Amino acid sequence: MIVSEMTPNLVLVILIGILVATGVYLLLERSLTRILIGVALIGNGVNLLLLVAGGAAGAPPLVGESEEPMADPVPQALILTAIVITLGFTAFILAMAYRSWQLHGHDEVQDDVEDRRVAKRTEEGALDARADDASVNAAMEALTVRDETEDEDNEQSEGGAR
């Protein structure tokens, strides 16, 4: 059996697939905490992919001249950069989750009112039959669409939560 130096380890490739697939699944959730874990898993999977794509380890690239094959420093530099960016992004999502928990008592991402308005129009079949004065219709519909998140917030604040 011939194994070249550029043949990736099958276990690492499977681990990359599992990390990225699990991360994508968690990104599709509404909880910011799960989204954060999904971003971290995808980041680790991509870092592992870069490490595997960099090839086998060799001699240090910066010290002297040698006959041995040298390691490529680009994957390590990319991984270090990705770790720093992921750390900043993680801090941002944690801050958003904490603020959402302070304001609403949970860290779930709410529906967009505009999305609900479009979904309502689609259900009614009115989306295809738009009139020329679409901006007037949109303004009137925006007035009639009820924001359910505000109702939940008002109920919580009236219940003595704060």
From TrEMBL:
Listed Gene3D superfamilies: 1.10.287.3510
Mode of membrane association: Multi-pass membrane protein
Superkingdom field: Bacteria
Annotated signal sequence range: none
GO cellular component: plasma membrane
Subcellular location: Cell membrane
Annotated spans, Disordered: 124-162
Similarity comment text for this entry: Belongs to the CPA3 antiporters (TC 2.A.63) subunit C family.
Protein name, as recorded: Multisubunit sodium/proton antiporter MrpC subunit
The organism of origin for this protein: Serinibacter salmoneus
